[in-house]
């Protein structure tokens, strides 16, 4: 019999659902909060905001992160901004419009009710962050400023120069520090969760490794929340921070938490192109640049060939010979089409031979028109740190004049190409953000909840902070309301013994392989397989080949890995080996899901399923569901469980960004 998933979505139309939900929700008696402990794993925007809020509400919080400070979580990398439906511009924005854009942007594969709730709390996030002192950009008159991001025709993105994530995290960190000072949050930095401990079917604790001493430690609580980020680094090269990993999420999956929509991986259109095989990181050029930058390639193939050979420069090509292909193909949204659409369009041009650098895998992002219109000072105010970052990496400053044709100044354009950036898939959660394991919750990028098959720009921070400040602190209480009578379980229980023994055995296994290959060399090879067969364009044949190659490489990992050092003390190579073990599980899961979904939608593009114009072709009749995967043991195919999607407020249709 097919398994049924209870997503706990309250009945009734959007937006009444969320209000209804709040009205009937169980809350924890304030006195009992003191008896309840919650473990929050992660201090990115999702984790830090959740830990701070839970502490503030009176719960006892244990908060862990792998970095030496919560302020160094990957969230600080976020450049461009955070969405909210404030409508300060008076440009027709509304909660409904943000909700609609997000559902459409996700190619109608998100849960409608969750997205409505997200749009509704988006405005509270901005108020909360302003109250914390986050220095959002302001207009001359003092009003908070906005810019536009992909998939929207209104300006709803709040930003702090190109450092929005860092400033938001500093705000959340202040609140967190306040709770640490009040004794409500106990912070453990440089601790890595290795396993979740299940007692009588509920998550009641974790095993974590002290990354400095190498010792394993046990933590017990009434509930566990993971906020450990996405799995983009499965691909080795990505815009994610080097430390990003999916170990906690994969371990929860191994223990019975369903993993939803793993094939929905976001490839960001504006990254600095790969420039050699010694690279370990790719750099994002924020989507905000598409507000003023225009994307183009030459119209003539001979110009493209000259650019590839280095005998011509972009600024020597006159206006009439430039193909602003996004403006041509999508007149209504132009350069601000969603990321999946922009990435595929860049690939299409480069595949046809119009790439503009020596590898043929790059397109131009050009600021000439906007600098001529607004002046370099305005452009520098908006994107100064991004221009400097680009110069530091490529030695080209996009604000430098390079040429003048017919009295028009041409500035040096950036070169960009799509790269792995974000993962929409994640641990399956119900409407309360609880996983399929009672007592285990997942928030932020590590859950699958709100973005469907494609995330719109500036919506990850919105979701992470919505989860952390405004959703989880309430929904978790529904679970905790009657938990105070059980108390905390002892870490001496056999379930903790068993979990710790298993983690120890894994560490020994990895150290004792004593083969010849470094973690990075194998990870790089896995990344090549992922990009080649499970990347931007997928086919059934390619996915099967990719899976076969992954199995072979995993065998190589299990038999020929070399990890220097020992279990005691700091051993970064050992930590990376654990992460790589889990990237293998994740990579195969992405491929299984992609193979099972015989349609194209959002970030999942199966080449067999496309329109004549090369757009994604969905199959709503057969694939209008969340694909949830249940772990069936190493080497075995996981089992697919479907959560059907139900739309009441929005008409499901083909995405259109042309008019
Ligand atoms: C370059 C870049 C720019 C971006 N710009 C934007 C933007 O402008 N707007 C936007 O909306 N989104 C943006 N994003 C996406 C956004 O930054 C992320 O989706 C978001 O910050 C994720 O937050 P998080 O709290 O879920 O996870 P993270 O910030 O990744 O935090 C994960 C936390 O978990 C901890 N952790 C991980 N594993 C373990 C473990 N096993 N044990 C203990 N702790 C663990 C880490 O220490 C960390 O504290 C950008 C992403 C990138 C890569």
How would you sum up this structure, described in words?
- The structure is a single chain.
- This protein has 18 helices and 21 strands.
- It has 659 residues and is an alpha+beta fold.
- The protein has helices at residues 16-24, 30-33, 45-57, 95-105, 112-132, 164-181, 247-254, 301-309, 325-329, 339-351, 368-374, 376-394, 460-480, 494-512, 519-533, 540-560, 572-596, 620-623; strands at residues 37-41, 60-65, 82-83, 157-158, 185-189, 191-199, 202-210, 216-220, 223-226, 259-260, 265-271, 294-298, 322-323, 363-366, 401-405, 408-411, 414-423, 426-427, 440-442, 625-630, 639-644.
- The two termini are 45 Å apart.
- The strands form 6 sheets. It has a 5-stranded parallel sheet.
- The model has no long low-confidence stretch (mean pLDDT 95).
- Strand 7 and strand 8 form a beta hairpin.
- The chain is 37% helix and 16% strand.
- The chain binds flavin-adenine dinucleotide.
- Flavin-adenine dinucleotide is lined by residues 41-47, 64-67, 73-75, 77-82, 164-165, 191-193, 227-229, 239-240, 244-245, 247-248, 284, 421-422, 444-446, 458-461, 464.
């Amino acid at each position: 019999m097919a398994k049924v998933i209870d997503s706990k979505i309250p009945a009734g139309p959007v937006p009444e659902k969320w209000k209804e939900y709040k009205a009937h929700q169980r809350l924890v008696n304030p006195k009992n909060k003191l008896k309840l402990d919650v473990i929050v794993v992660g201090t990115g925007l999702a984790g830090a905001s959740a830990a701070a809020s839970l502490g503030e509400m009176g719960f006892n919080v244990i908060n862990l992160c792998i970095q030496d400070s919560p302020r160094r979580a990957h969230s600080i990398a976020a450049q461009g901004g955070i969405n909210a439906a404030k409508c300060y511009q008076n440009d027709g924005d509304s909660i409904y419009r943000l909700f609609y854009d997000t559902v459409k942007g996700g190619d109608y594969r998100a849960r409608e009710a969750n997205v409505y709730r997200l749009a509704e709390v988006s405005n509270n996030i901005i108020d909360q962050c302003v109250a914390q002192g986050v220095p959002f950009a302001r207009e001359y008159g003092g009003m908070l400023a906005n810019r536009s991001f992909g998939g929207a025709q209104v300006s709803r993105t709040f930003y702090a120069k190109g450092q929005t994530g860092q400033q938001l995290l500093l705000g959340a960190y202040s609140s967190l520090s306040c709770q640490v000072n009040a004794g409500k949050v106990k912070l453990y930095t440089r601790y890595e969760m290795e396993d979740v401990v299940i007692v009588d079917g509920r998550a009641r604790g974790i095993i974590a490794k002290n990354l400095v001493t190498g010792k394993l430690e046990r933590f017990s609580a009434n509930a566990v929340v993971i906020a450990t980020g996405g799995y983009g680094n499965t691909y080795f090269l990505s815009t994610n921070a080097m430390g990003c990993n999916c170990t906690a999420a994969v371990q929860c999956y191994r223990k019975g938490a369903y993993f939803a929509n793993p094939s929905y991986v976001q490839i960001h259109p504006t990254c600095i192109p790969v420039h050699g095989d010694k690279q370990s990181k790719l750099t994002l050029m924020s989507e905000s640049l598409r507000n003023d930058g225009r994307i183009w390639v030459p119209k003539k193939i001979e110009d493209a060939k000259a650019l590839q050979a280095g005998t011509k420069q972009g600024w020597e090509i006159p206006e009439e010979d430039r193909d602003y292909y996004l403006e041509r193909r999508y007149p209504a949204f132009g350069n601000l089409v969603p990321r999946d659409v922009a990435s595929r369009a860049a690939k299409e041009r480069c595949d046809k031979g119009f790439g503009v650098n020596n590898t043929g895998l790059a397109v131009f992002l050009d600021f000439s028109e906007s600098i001529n219109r607004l002046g370099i000072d305005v452009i520098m105010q908006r994107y100064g740190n991004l221009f400097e970052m680009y110069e530091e990496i490529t030695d080209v400053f996009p604000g430098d004049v390079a040429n003048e044709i017919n009295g028009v100044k041409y500035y040096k354009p950036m070169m960009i190409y799509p790269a792995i950036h974000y993962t929409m898939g994640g641990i399956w959660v119900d409407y309360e953000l609880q996983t399929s394991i009672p007592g285990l919750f997942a928030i932020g990028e590590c859950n699958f909840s709100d973005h469907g098959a494609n995330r719109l720009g500036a919506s990850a921070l919105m979701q992470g902070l919505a989860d952390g400040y405004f959703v989880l602190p309430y929904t978790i209480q529904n679970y905790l309301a009657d938990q105070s009578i059980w108390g905390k379980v002892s870490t001496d229980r056999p379930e903790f013994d068993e979990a710790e023994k298993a983690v120890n055995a894994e560490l020994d296994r990895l150290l004792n392989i004593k083969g010849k290959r470094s973690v990075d060399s194998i990870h790089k090879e896995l990344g090549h397989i992922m990009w080649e067969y499970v990347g931007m364009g997928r086919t059934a044949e390619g996915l099967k080949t990719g899976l076969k190659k992954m199995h072979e490489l995993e065998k190589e990992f299990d038999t020929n890995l070399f990890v220097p050092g020992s279990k005691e003390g700091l051993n970064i190579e050992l930590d990376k080996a654990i992460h790589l073990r889990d990237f293998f599980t994740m990579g195969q899961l992405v491929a299984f899901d992609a193979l099972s979904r015989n349609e194209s939608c959002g970030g999942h593009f199966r080449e067999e399923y496309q329109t004549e114009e090369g757009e994604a072709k969905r199959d709503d009749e057969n694939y209008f569901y969340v694909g949830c995967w249940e772990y069936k043991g190493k080497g075995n195919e996981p089992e697919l469980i479907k959560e059907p999607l139900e739309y009441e407020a929005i008409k499901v249709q083909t995405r259109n960004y042309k008019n």
